[in-house]
Amino acid sequence: MFMLLVIGLLVATVGTEAFTNPIAPNAPDPWMVSYEGFYYLIATSWDNYFSIRKATTLEGLKNASNTVVYTFDGHTGWAPELHQVDGKWYLYYTSCAPGTENYACHRNHVAESVGDDPMGPYSHKADLIDDGDPMELDPSLIKINGKFYLIASFIADTQQLYIRELTNPYTLAPGVKHMISAPTYDWEIEGGTTNEGPEPLYHDNRTFIVYSASSCATPDYKLGLLEFVGTDPLNITHWKKYPNPVFQKDEGHHVYGPGHNGFFKSADGTEDWIVYHANSSPDGVCYMDRSSRAQKFTWGADGLPIFGVPEAEGVELEEPSSEQ
Ligand SMILES: *[C@@H]1O[C@H](CO)[C@@H](O)[C@H](O)[C@H]1NC(C)=O
Ligand SMILES: *[C@@H]1O[C@H](CO)[C@@H](O)[C@H](O)[C@H]1NC(C)=O
Ligand SMILES: *[C@@H]1O[C@H](CO)[C@@H](O)[C@H](O)[C@H]1NC(C)=O
C-alpha cells in the first residue's frame, strides 16, 4: 500500500501530464501552432469571424476562451490556417462574399496580423481568387526551394488539388493554377470524388502534402499523401501520390471520418503532432458537430510519416513535450 502510494507520487511529480481528445467541440478543419510556449487552436466557424483558443497545454485549450481575432465582410467561413512569415501572421481562409447564397460562392482569402501575436487582431489583406471554377477552398501556404506557393482545392468535374505561384504570402504571381491531384483511387471517391484540405509537411529535406479524400459527409473521409519528387512544383508529374491512405476511421475506437488536419510541433520543437477533426458516430455529417483532436506521430525508416490510428475519445494521452 505504502509502495503504491510512493509510486503514485513519483508518477505525479515526474509529470507525465495527460490530455484527452477531443480538445474542442464543434471545431472542424482545425489548425494549431505552438509559439513561444503557447498552443493556438483555430477552426472553421461557419460564420463571419474566426476565433482562437490559447493555452500552455492541450488539456488547457478546453477551458480557454475562444477569442474572436478576425471578422470579415461575408459569411460561411471555413478552413482557417495561421502561417508566420517575416514576423507577421497570415490567416488563410475560405468564405463567401456578402449576398451570395450557396456553397459555390466559396473563394480563398488571406488576412494579416497587426503585429507578431498569433492572436492578431487581423485585417483583410488580399483575395486569392482564380476565376472560372465553381468553387475554390482550403488554402494553405507551402514553401518549395525558397519560393511560396498557394495550395488549395477546387471543384471542376471532380474536386481536385491545385498549386498556384505567389510572389509573396498574399500576392498571386502572373499565371494560372495547376492541378496536382485528382481523386482516382477507390479510397478517394467514397461518397464523393474529393481531394481537399492540402497541408504542407516537411521532413529531412523532403516536401509532402497531406490531403483529405472522399466525402466529408461519410465515415470514410481520410488522409492521403503526396510527395514533391521533381523540380517543378507546378507540374503534376513531379508529385508522387502514395497508393494507400495514411490515416482513416477506426471503428474499434469509434472515430469516424478523421481528416482536414494541420501539423504542429511540441512546445520544445522535438515532437511532430497532427491536429484533425472527426465524428464520434458513423452517421456524423459534414458540419459543425465535428470535434478537434490531436495526437503525436513519428517517422518511418523510409522517411514517411506514420500517423497510426485515431485515438479513442477520453483516453489519456501524454501532453506534448515542453522541456526546454
Ligand atoms: C476546466 O474547467 C473545469 C470546470 O470548471 C475544471 O474542473 C477543470 O479542472 C478545468 N481544466 C483545466 C485544465 O483547467
Ligand atoms: C538536407 O540538405 C542539406 C543541404 O543540402 C544537407 O546539408 C543535409 O544533410 C540534408 N539533410 C538530410 C537529413 O538529408
Ligand atoms: C512536366 O514534367 C514532365 C516530366 O519532367 C515533362 O515531360 C513535361 O514536359 C512537363 N510539362 C510541363 C507543362 O512543363
Automatic annotation (TrEMBL):
Pfam families: Glyco_hydro_43. One of its GO terms (molecular function) is hydrolase activity, hydrolyzing O-glycosyl compounds. Residues 1-18 form the signal peptide. The keyword Signal applies. Belongs to the glycosyl hydrolase 43 family. InterPro entries: Glyco_hydro_43, Glyco_hydro_beta-prop_sf. Keywords: Glycosidase, Hydrolase, Signal. The record marks D138 as: Important for catalytic activity, responsible for pKa modulation of the active site Glu and correct orientation of both the proton donor and substrate. This is Uncharacterized protein LOC108733368. Gene3D superfamilies: Glycosyl hydrolase domain, family 43. One of its GO terms (biological process) is carbohydrate metabolic process. It comes from the Eukaryota. It comes from Agrilus planipennis (Emerald ash borer).
